[in-house]
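Session log. Operator J.P. requested a structure for one protein chain; no other inputs attached. Running the standard single-chain path with token output.
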Amino acid sequence: AATAAAGAGIGFAAAKKCVEEGCRALFISDIHEGRTTQAVEALKALGGTQLVFGRVANVTVEEQVQALIDEAEAKLGGVDVLINNAGRSIRRSVALSYDRFHDFTRTIELNYYGCLRLIMGFLPSMTEKRRGHIINISSIGVLANSPRFSAYVASKAALDAFSRCAQAEFSDSGIAFTTVNMPLVRT
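Structure written below.
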């Protein structure tokens, strides 16, 4: 399994659950070096699997994502489960965002394009093996049309829509897509 933004919060909880459920090997990433190192040590301490690898990566930087994919492929022979958890939320009304278009571009770059880079990077080996599961952590806001979260909800809605389309294309390839529409959480 591979999980992005696994140094804390939902990502770490997902990585911990993978270890507890008997995952044979785990490759995690986070943008923060200290959190990545601490998470790898904490996950190894849980027992079960000692094959826990970590890499610092910013999923908005294509070269860093490719290095992460290359390392996961080299150390694990690819991944069977990808958990896309990297994300940023912005809480600001549209009226207060007129002069903050950069909030929309930064949010879509991380929440949609960052996840898409990982999906597109791992899909070829999943397709070759004819198995895989891509789990995208999304938001209940996509279903609820939450006010003051337009940048965030739009970026997550894009990922949700991509996953629905990709699921239709890969349904006969042994590859599944799951979207988890998380409620508001304190991480």
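Operator note: The chain has six helices and six strands.
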